[in-house]
Design a protein that fits this description.
- It is a single chain.
- By secondary structure, the chain is mostly helical.
- It is built from 33 helices and two strands.
- A two-stranded antiparallel sheet has the order 1-2.
- Helix 10 crosses helix 11.
Length: 596
């Protein structure tokens, strides 16, 4: 970027030209830059601040900052003797945010300080927004702290910055400071602080903020109301959310939808349906929330019935409706319901651009029909990261390791870069197929080729791969060299490998780490007991079994599920709570007799 600016700067004329009035500069900035008949910016002089600002503003609006860097026009304006004002910096920073140009933004910050605009709340707000948009919260806080008397707008911006970066503790602490210095919040500031308490997940803090709102006399509009309902829900109290909903006078459609959403998030389908039926006015979001709520808990017949009701209403299912239902059906393995949605999409021509292909591939993969998933991928007009990742994940899920890697190679040849999720599935495929050399190569390429820093999931895949192939020493060294602490999954995977290859020494070390992470999980003790038994160390094996029994450690029961007539039924080990338990047992006994 800097080289581009310097090159273009030396190409610009350094003498003043005739006055250019606003209509002409506007006409140029919206002209097609590829049109050779359009006048060049270099043909115009920087004759006053208004034209200068307009040119920079148009750059921000057009977003074409790679071809014509905004800082280029700023530098040329300074060279021709113009002095920037507050608007100059605001437009310039807005343009730089679009291109994530951090270094140029810091140079503009230095110019702001030199020209005396650091005390302007509007300019400081633009600077703060620039740093937050680029993830530099420390620099944003520095801009805020250097303001002698920040006004309410700047206080709110800084608090909201912490909320946007998921730093609720810092946001609430800044709000307390704001109150100590006597700045009174408005509705926007209050809604921001309420959101912070929701992120914190502390019900006591949420109630304290609610109490402050009531005592302070701040007007509670629909936005604040919906934020409070959402916050109570996020803090785990549907009761408080519903109580406030009943008490508040501000009940527009957004507030109703928020209350429905929270009811369904807490699996209170009866309350969600009751609220939905009570609404005098609904929108697409109302329908989407209810359909997704029923689908998420496996009540697919009800979800599809609602889907049909939506069809005959004034609203039609949109992309969000289809995405959420497909995701829910995929999570529960509801193939029949998912296939019906696919048929609906095709019959109504709702997937011309292929935007639903990744969700359809994911649904069919998770529901067991990998052949259909492959067919959708091959016919898809949209080969973006999400589509490639969906088919790669699906193939890995079904154990098609070599085919998975073939698709990954095609993805690279198509100039589509993988993300962390893609790499997890690629490494997982290598582990299941026993492709150790490819796994090592792909793991090393993450940072060197794709610029992806391996996360704990990627290390877990490599430990699994090395353990399956008997490279226990290499796997152990990898665990010990990880930049983060290994979790139960990684140690568990490695312990399983120690069990397969009867490595007592590493098995003991691994089991000890598992005991420290979860002292009451019996699985590690069972595995170590088996390792001892294989090596004829029966005293130590029986000692672990005795410890499990005496301390009452219990393993979480296994669970299986099956889809019948559009509904998914779950079964736990030794569970007799299913309403058809006796009928199921009777049928199983009949089948057993026939088999004998």
């Amino acid at each position: 970027m800097r080289a581009c600016i310097q090159q273009r700067f030396h190409q610009l004329p350094h003498t003043r030209f005739s006055f250019l009035h606003p209509p002409r500069i506007h006409a140029y900035t919206v002209a097609n830059v590829e049109n050779p008949s359009a006048p060049s910016r270099e043909d115009y002089a920087y004759t006053n601040v208004f034209l200068w600002n307009t040119m920079i503003r148009k750059q921000a609006e057009n977003g074409d900052i790679t071809r014509d860097p905004p800082l280029l026009y700023y530098i040329q304006g300074l060279r021709t003797g113009l002095r920037p004002n507050g608007q100059t910096f605001m437009y310039l920073l807005k343009a730089l945010v679009c291109g994530k140009n951090v270094n140029e933004g810091e140079e503009v910050h230095a110019s702001v300080v030199r020209t005396g605009f650091a005390s302007s709340e509007f300019v400081s707000g633009a600077l703060l927004g620039f740093y937050v948009a680029n993830g530099f919260i420390g620099q944003a806080r520095q801009v805020f702290d250097e303001m002698p008397q920040p006004g309410l707008v700047l206080w709110t911006l800084m608090i909201r910055a912490y909320v946007c970066l998921t730093l609720p503790g810092e946001a609430l602490e800044l709000f307390r400071t704001m109150r100590r210095v006597g700045v009174m919040p408005d509705m926007v500031a209050v809604a921001t602080v309420v959101s912070a308490s929701g992120l914190l997940g502390d019900l006591g803090v949420a109630k304290t903020i609610h109490c402050f709102i009531e005592k302070s006399g701040v007007e509670v509009d629909a936005f604040v109301s919906s934020t409070l309902i959402n916050t109570y829900g996020e803090c785990g109290s549907l009761t408080d959310a519903y109580r406030f909903f009943q008490e508040t006078a501000m009940k527009n459609i957004v507030v109703w939808n928020t209350m429905i959403h929270q009811s369904l998030e807490h699996n209170n389908l009866d309350l969600g349906k009751q609220l939905f039926d009570s609404m005098q006015e609904r929108d697409v979001a109302s329908w989407n929330s209810l359909i997704r709520g029923f689908a998420n808990v496996g009540q697919y017949e009800e979800a599809l019935a609602l889907f049909h009701d939506m069809e005959i209403s004034v609203f039609r299912p949109n992309t969000l409706t289809l995405l959420s239902t497909l995701s829910a059906y995929a999570s529960h393995g509801a193939l029949k319901a998912g296939a019906w949605i696919h048929s609906y999409v095709n019959n109504n021509d709702l997937n011309q651009d292929g935007s639903l292909d990744s969700s359809l591939i994911d649904m069919y993969s998770k529901c067991g029909d990998i052949a259909k998933a492959i067919q959708i991928f091959e016919e898809s007009p949209r080969r973006d990261l999400f589509t490639w990742t969906s088919i790669i994940c699906g193939l890995a899920m079904h154990g098609h390791g070599k085919k998975n890697l073939c698709y990954f190679s095609e993805m690279n040849e198509s100039q589509v870069s993988p993300d962390e999720v893609t790499m997890v599935r690629v490494l997982s495929a290598c582990a299941h197929a026993g492709l150790i050399e490819q796994g090592r190569r792909y793991f090393q390429s993450m940072e060197k080729v794709f610029g992806l820093v391996p996360k704990i999931e990627h290390y877990g895949c490599m430990v699994n791969l090395l353990g399956r192939m008997g490279c226990l020493k290499e796997a152990y060294d990898l665990i010990m060299g990880m930049p983060m602490e290994a979790n139960e999954i990684i140690w568990g995977s490695f312990l399983s490998a120690c069990r397969v290859y009867n490595n007592v020494e590493l098995g003991e070390v691994t089991a000890k780490s598992l005991f420290e992470l979860d002292p009451r999980d019996p699985w590690g003790r069972v595995m170590l007991s088996n390792i001892f038994a294989e090596e004829a160390k029966y005293d130590r094996s029986m000692g672990l079994r005795k410890e499990i029994k005496e301390k009452g450690f219990k393993k979480s029961p296994g669970c299986s599920s099956i889809e019948v007539n559009g509904s998914v039924h779950g079964f736990l080990v030794e569970d007799n709570s299913h309403p058809c338990y006796n009928e199921i047992n009777s049928t199983l006994e009949k089948i057993e007799k026939l088999m004998n």
